[in-house]
Batch of 2 targets.
Target 1
Amino acid sequence: MSVVVVAEHLRGEVREVTHELVSAGESLGPVSVALIARDPTPLIAAVNVEGVSEIVTLAAGADEFESDTYEQALEALIAERKPRIVLVGFTVNAMGYASAVAARLGLGFASDVHQVSLEGDAVIATRSFYGGKVDAEVEFPGAETVILALRPTVWAPAEGVGSAGVSSLDLSLSPARARHVEFLEPAAASDVDITQADFLFSVGRGIGDADALPELEALATRMGGTLSVSRPVVDAGWMPSSRQVGQSGKTVKPKVYLALGISGAVQHLAGMKSSGTIIAVNTDPEAAIFGVAHYGAVADLFDVVEELEKLY
Amino acid sequence: MRVLVCVKQVRALGDEVEFTADGTDVDPDYLDAALNEWDSYATEEALCVREAHGGEVVAVTCGPKESEAALRRCLAMGADRALRVDGVESHDPLCVARALAEVVREESPDLVLCGVQSSDSVQAATGTALAGLAGLPHVAVVTKLELGTGSARVHRELEGGLLDVVDVDLPALLTIQTGINQPRYANLRAIKQAEQVEIAVRQAGDTAAGSRVRRMFVPSRGDAAEMLGGDPAEVARRIAEIVRERVA
């Protein structure tokens, strides 16, 4: 059962999700790590961790991610090696190429996978549906190769120094039709840095509109905390993105994370699930946030806020 | 400029769940339908392109007759016409992408916009798979679009909010992230008018899937949260206690 892990890198650094993929792959079969970059050599050491059998360099394209390069490189590698399983991260980069390869080559495919197992020769992936309220076991009948995009931070990253051999695959690619130009840093926190707070008082879509925010922020401050928000609050333009917790915002690890009216989309959970103590208040008893919370209450956030105001 | 917007009628699960007899999906009686949130941003972006550059906005969905509600929402927002591909009932994004690829071939759009992901399946895969099948240049998770001549400059939003500025040749497919714009509300008159619009229906051809759900179930929450009982006053008192205790 051969496994290919596609390494993810950004600005010359291998991203941690790569090591998580190695760790997931190890239990399935011998792991080959594919390094796709204009010059893969400086990245080799960082992917040579315990559990890696082989590193395949695919020197192609630009320094940074470009979808056409990744697709052509991965297609060439699959044609050459015929791996049973290809593991990629459920990341923005992989969202930009993995399913295109799977569709074109007629492979099996599933994303946001949080568990993988083998039943004989069959690959079984577990992923969530309906807001994380139910899980499903997914199978891939007839597919010789299956691409799985694994949810980040589920598998512990592989560590140590491996002894993998290095080989290379020569590619001749057509020019990229979507080209990296430059990176722009996210807007810096002008007021507060939510990653430094010991206590985050976090609100989500449940607040309904922007009117309640000044009052909520004042309460957060009186409680000794900092106000943070989930993505919908930023999308609506009610708070700056510097206050956003989640995959596309900040990853936080306060001593206490109080989630009010946050249902717990997987991208939000990725940014806060390592918090010391998580308290969630939501009107929906099945909300996914209760799956990571240490304490939960099924209640209207404004009823609880009203009572908190009497205490502070 | 012809902009094709691919949308999905998503289904949300409430407080209770029952499964279908074969155990591979949730009983539809326990699901509420709506236009996928990401797709409302994609539709708005398509309308903005039309307003700036002229042309038409065509909304398409794959699914049964009920999914036309999503298309009517797009029409009420301002889409010029809508079409539905019937015969695709799968959770599988590759299956949906194959059905949509036939529409792209027929419509030859200058730009295809999809939402990044659907709120009920969160595969973040259909748009990119469609681009692969249709041979279109593509960028996923776009938070800004500036159309030029023959190409577009877009922002791709990476983890942590880092932006990747990308130049993409046209025609192209983009998957649109929430927050790129503020989707307009449809007024009542527009909603009523949209109900009268005829929606073209075509049958899906090849819809080979990349996966099949064999079992759906409620996950066990091993170390589930300790639930704080009592009225809101009691809940607030306990929260205050925990905060005082843990935040030294």
Target 2
Amino acid sequence: MMDLHAMMEALHLMATSMSSWGWIVPGLIVGLVFSAIPGVSISMAMAIVLPMSLYMDFFPSVVFLTSVYTGAGFGGSVPAILMNIPGSPTSYATTFDGYAMSKKGMHNEALGYALFASTLCGLAGYVLLLFVVEPMANLVLKIGPFEMFAVAIWGMLLLGSLGTKYATRGILAAGLGVLLGGIGMNTAGFMRGTMGMPELINGIAPVPAMIGLLASGQLFNLATKDYILDAESSREVSLKKILAGCWGTFKFPGVLVRGSIIGIVIGAVPGVGAAVGNLIAYSETKRTAKDSQTFGKGNPKGLVAAESSVASSEGGSMATMLALGIPGGGATAILLAAFMMHNIVPGPSFIQNQKPMVYAIILNNMVQAVLLLVVGIAFIYAACNVVRIRTRYVLPAILVIATLGTYAVEGSVSGPITLFVFSILGFGLVKFQYPVAAVVVGILLGRMLETELLRSYQVSGGDLLYILHRPFALAIFAMMFFSLVMTMIGKRRQARIEAEEARMMRELDAQVLAENGR
Amino acid sequence: MRIRNREYTLDWAHLAFIAVIAAYVAWYLLDARSVSLARNNLLLLQPLALFILLFCAIVVRQCFRRADAKVEEEIEEEDPLAPTLPIGRELLRVGLLGLAFGAMVFLLNTIGFDIAIWLFALAAMLLCGERRPLALIIYPLAVAVCGIYGFKALMPYPMPTAIL
């Protein structure tokens, strides 16, 4: 199951790559700070720092980006607990009980619960990844181009249908992404959609397009606000109470295990991700709890369930990205782009040929999860003030960094121009509620999808009934259909849960107001 | 707008957005067909483009909303993550920021990265409401200097600048 020789080599690689150690804490801080700012998501944070990683060696660059990913997983919970504003969509379920605890004056304990659940379950996700990555790669090696095509289509459809309230807009966005990803010369030598621009022969530059879609396009919206968030006044932070919360997490082993399993499984499905996982983990914990009536009113179990699922989903989505080379969402799409920038294609052959590197990446993520505990506690002290930064200072700085970053990646002004064009597209997509991540992943996978389909076509000799000889592909298409139906049902269920939580929060607010009035 | 005795509101901006996407996809398809009609060229592209055009047509329906349904929907909106989007004067501010950003990008090589970045940072601060002269002098300058020297140290490509 695990290659011990490769593991020893991985440890040696980690021990000798001192620069990679140096990038862990800065990465965690970047992730924590960015995702604590409401409106700045995990993928935005990673997109902004992506060009910096181009000038690092491969291993330190992956360490840096995964550290940002790890930090951002917890960072979003801080405003969720303190202000009822999820820093990122992955922290939505955290607000249900986290903010209710905060209202009762238990914000320190709530932060402790969230931080420790993140650390423990982040570790659990990566321990599991360590054991399954090789068998997964062996399995993937046995599948052909048509199956790869089917898996990619499945991921795209899920990403499109889950990323927005309107499934039709999501599927349209995913299709548009794939179409844009196919611009330039295809594997058969035909050149399309370049508008006569030589810069587009090899396709749209993915990094500037990604930064434009995920970051700068959405940052324009902040121009209308004086502060990123008109936060409530800072709350007193107590290390003793945070540690008490951390210790309290051990009281709910069942919740931790259930949340982790849900997070890993949901995270591993391309296109689903932590934003859905935390809601499912929360609702499952609530459904099975004896004290379910106290959920939404400050029950730590709800908080632990949501956070454990978010943290462990990182390991699940990394498994899919490493084994299949298919990103599950915006954050793993950026990791995939970082691999590509270093001319490395993740997938089964990468795992087979670079086993020590794969193990080193996983082991380093475990180190990050442990360090998050220390850096996270220090960050909580500063976090209350992060959201009170004025947009007039943040906005120009981030947009300039994004522009210079894309110039650094492309080496010409075509990078910033691509950034600008995709910023406009990104703004439009957000404004009209299309899932931006679906377009991003489509751009990244478009060429691969077309190549795999062409190969399948050539292998089958143009026979449409070829699909009947590929039972695995048929199974994937059946699963695709099943998961689309489940998505529709899940969306209705999610809407019901959200409405119920909103009603409970209103009741709690009214109760607090009544008590204050007495 | 009145259709079959029912009052509808039309989301013109969304309709325009869909029209742009549909026009682009149609152009892309025609461009690909003009290159070659071989299956190796159109195998994925043609069905995908037609599929997108079909979905554009479906989404167009969502641009029309019954006037009475709109009020109910506004009351139902509880999601704190639902995008809060600018309208009216705020949209104008976002539009101007976009224009300033575009001007910077297209002027980078012409007037130099340093001047373009300084001008953009100044314009962005003004658009975001900064009026204090000291902040307007110091901050854009700091962004330009840190950005230029930081990235010059980081990357091997030449960066055309006027002063720095």
